[in-house]
Amino acid sequence: MATGKPLLELTGVTQHYPAPEGTEPVCVLRDVALAVAAGESVAIVGPSGSGKSTLLNIIGTLDRPAAGKVVFDNRDLLALSDDELATLRNREIGFIFQSHHLLPQCSVLENVLVPTLAGDAALREGAEDRARKLLERVGLSARLAHRPAQLSGGERQRVAVVRALINRPKLLLADEPTGALDRASSKNLSDVLVELNRELGVTLITVTHSVELAGRMGRVLELDDGRLAPRRAEAPA
């Protein structure tokens, strides 16, 4: 349940990339404004190449904008050093990508615990118990010792979700999390994300082409030509 106070706030965020000499820079994001409350779920949709992943990378501090301001939990992210941002990413922001990026040589349980290794002792305390409970919550309690190659695509993505949540982040970012899954696995993962958002109170922002997943978020925004706005209603047939 959203509290009403923005956990995340973007103001005037613009991103452009250099172009060949003699041509104008490529503008990917144009004066983007966004406020997301703690516990809210938001989908960002739009055409391929519209800048959705670029926006998610800026929110997740993987990239810095050319202009604008990004405030997360009352901190100006653009004022933080690279080391400070790395610590924040590890402790407060979870990432899920279209590809699960699991370590093939590690078991399910070991993969989930990887993000805790970069933290301090307090972060590692109780991590294995949290991992086991979360894996049970997403239906993988019988897969703890399995390696990624022994899992289905949907199971691998559920492991990736648990790994993203193991450090109890305030914000979960998902970039096309169902994009590589079949319909049944996609629905299962959508159920998991919606339920964890509600049960854990973690703020969820997902970039997706899935109409079904977007429709289950509390709010849907559309990014087109670098500008972010509420999704326009479909015209009647």
Q: Give the SSE order as H and E letters.
A: EEEHEEHEHHHHEHEHEE
- Mean of pLDDT: 91
In CATH terms, the superfamily is P-loop containing nucleotide triphosphate hydrolases
The gross shape turns out to be globular
Radius of gyration: 18 Å
User: What's the story with the biggest beta sheet?
Assistant: 6 strands, mixed
How does CATH name the architecture? 3-Layer(aba) Sandwich
How would you describe the overall organization of this protein?
The chain has 237 residues and is of the alpha/beta class. It has one domain (6-230): P-loop containing nucleotide triphosphate hydrolases (Rossmann fold). The chain has 8 helices and 10 strands. A 6-stranded mixed beta sheet has the order 6-7-8-3-9-10, with helices on both faces. A 4-stranded antiparallel beta sheet has the order 2-1-4-5, covered by helices on one side. Strand 1 and strand 2 (26-37) form a beta hairpin. Helix 6 (153-165) packs parallel to helix 7 (183-200).
